[in-house]
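User: Hi! I'm working on a homework problem where we have to compare a predicted structure to a textbook description. Could you give me the structure for the chain below?
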Amino acid sequence: MRDRVWHVVTGILVPAWLLAAALGTLLHRTLPSSGWLLVHLLLLGAVSTAILIWSQHFADTLLRRRALGHRLSLGLRLAAHTIGAVLVMTGMVVDAFGLVLAGGVLVGLNAVAHAVVIIGQSRGALPARFSPLVRYYVASALMLAVGVTLGVLMARLDGGGEDYERLFLGHLGLNLLGWVGLAVVGTIALLWPTVLHTRIEAATAASGPTLPVLVGGLGLLALGCLADLRLVVTLGVLVYLIALGRVLGEAVGHLRRAPAVTFAGWSLGAALVWFALCTLGFAVQVALSPSWTVAAAGVEALVPYLAVGFAAQVLLGALSYLVPVVLGGGPAAAKATAAELDRGGLFRVIAVNAALGVSLLPVSSSLTVALSLLVVGCMASFLVLFARALRTNRRVRALPLVRVAPGERTPVPAPRATGRILVAAAAVLLTVTAGIVVDPPSVGPQTASAQEGAPVPATGHTTEVTVEMVDTRFVPDRVEVPVGDELVITLTNRDDMVHNLVLETGLVSPSLEPGESEVVMIGTIGADVQGWCSIAGHRLLGMDLDIVAVGAPEHVGHDADATAATAADDLDPMSEPGPDFVARDAALAPAPGTTVHRRTLTVRDVETEVAPGVTQTLWTFDGTVPGPTLRGSVGDVFEITLVNEGTVGHSVDFHAGGVSPDEVMRTIQPGGRLTYTFTATRSGVWLYHCSTMPMSMHIANGMFGAVIIDPPGLATVDREYALIQSELYLGAQAGEVDAAKLQAREPDLVVFNGYANQYAARPLAARTGETVRFWVLAAGPDVGTSFHVVGGQFYTVFKEGEYLLRDGGSTGTGGSQALDLAAAQGGFVEVTFTEAGHYPFVSHVMSDAERGARGVVAVTDGP
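Assistant: Happy to help. Predicted structure tokens:
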């Protein structure tokens, strides 16, 4: 295989990992363990693959001797690392320790093999000025082997505890400062001056004792973590930082002689700055933290900056310089390829680093997300430029060689930097502005301090507590903290559903998947603070946390929901829907002739108008409220596949089937699916609904529908309509159900088929002399109905599986004025209209009729 083709084939691995990381970032809300996964897609995937490729390439160049096995050997190592990395990530995502162990062993052994190959390559190589730099690659590979071992042990412990946090710090230090850091230091010693086009006058600072000092510092770091000695860890990082300072000082000297003018130079330079700052931050966090837990939380906050600011920028900068060199094709091809990779370089570097810098400030998660999207967008553009560069290289190589005399060359003016700097600054400013507009409290610290105007003196003491999420409860649900103490809460989710912690101060923890833990830095406590889980309905179930400030004056709080805007403010009982409004079709088709009914119900969050000018984001089965009405006969089999494309966990309960609820009614998380099979053995109008707790909230927010099982011998009638009554507890416009109103049983609307008064605006049709059957179901969650047709008399009434009246009853003249149904009950009535006109139908609980439970049947003369 030709060199160029080989480099292209192996080099595709890195962009593939980068593409996976970019897609993962966009889809992170749907991915389990998304934060962990994104970091490892970048570091264990893209960056580690690049280190394997380029460390071998530089070893070949510096030693002037090929490794044993050459391409076959490197190909096998790349394959082993890729398989191992995939196994590790898959095992963590699906919670299969066996896969994590197998993948970790494969990655670790492969790293040792990489070190052995380079050691063997070094023996017998002719002495060269910079050949000692290959020792950095040997040392870094061994650090990866140890770091991966610590990571596997962490996975075995399954999170939580001081031992876990010590392993975490060791794993992070050896992998980022060791595996990545040592490889970068060994490479940058020569790559940096090459990119800047400067000369190395004497031995590089990376030569001599620098590597032993760096390795010694990492050894102290590992020893301190294993021996439970935080000061030793701090000392180790400081020793490492001193040696790193020598290399960075030399880099600054090169920069003074020849400022960076390409994306490669700017990106590498910015990466080295982040490397130094994050390494210093590592030492400071460990030194000043009162415990391993707090230290681990502080260092973990640095991971995005080490991963993106340092590792990703080193990777992109190095690729931008090396790809044109490796592809070759002559000066013209290399220049054209480099020009493609350099497009918008200054803008990309400034935007990425300014956004990272702003995100260091105490901003909210909304603004952090906006800044992250800007960073990901700028970095992901490299993939597009990489594809363009490959195409440009092929195109220019195919052009005939044209020689140009020196005097005939047209000078190319250097691009002006001012415009690019201003555009980058404007992009960051617009991003920040957008984040603040979406979430006005985006700026400023979010702490649980005292009331406004009463700053609390800090005691300098930290109170650490562990809170578990179990059975939709915080355990414990009350935490006492001395006034002035810093509070640190270690949250662990022991439940089988996602939870988070929100404080009334505005602080919001990450959402934790089952089994995950998170250290939340609450801040200085100066007054009582209330917290809760904000996942829909969980607070309604009692998932509250009280933080009590011991020794504080009486807390002057406020009800954050008391002044919240509600869509109920926009209700107008006299308003009519617009001319384009289409009412839900209440006409009911006969039961299909099949005996097996297969249906997929897809859960979606849909913003829906529920009254003129009033919208709510409802949780729906198949996008409608109520969900689809299913119909069949006694003995029919229903095979229902539930797919959750919503944002929270959901389930389904079919009252029409008698089955064990353990499996088929279990909650499935977003992205999940299950199949629910039941046989209809009893006739009636049956409710189906989401049974995920709190059920009241899931039903009130739209998750219900009807299954009609015809009683044997059901007569054919002229018209059939299905009316499902439910109530709405309005939150904000386009928001979700108001839990407080629901708990107080104070509905804003009571409606038929999901929309207030819709059949008053768009009446149902009938003709005189026709038999009209109304199937009625009270879906609730709390309110029943007394169904009545004004001006009509029911001569057949079927309720909860039994005829209460049939064709006038035993006398033949009997009638009924209302069908009374409690929540979750159903039935039907039959009526014939003898005169043309408009016949209102209502719930005769009149206050509910006035809230929207009314409609009209428009009767015209029969043929």
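For your comparison, note the following. The first strand starts at residue 462 and ends at 469. The radius of gyration is 34 Å. Good luck with the assignment!
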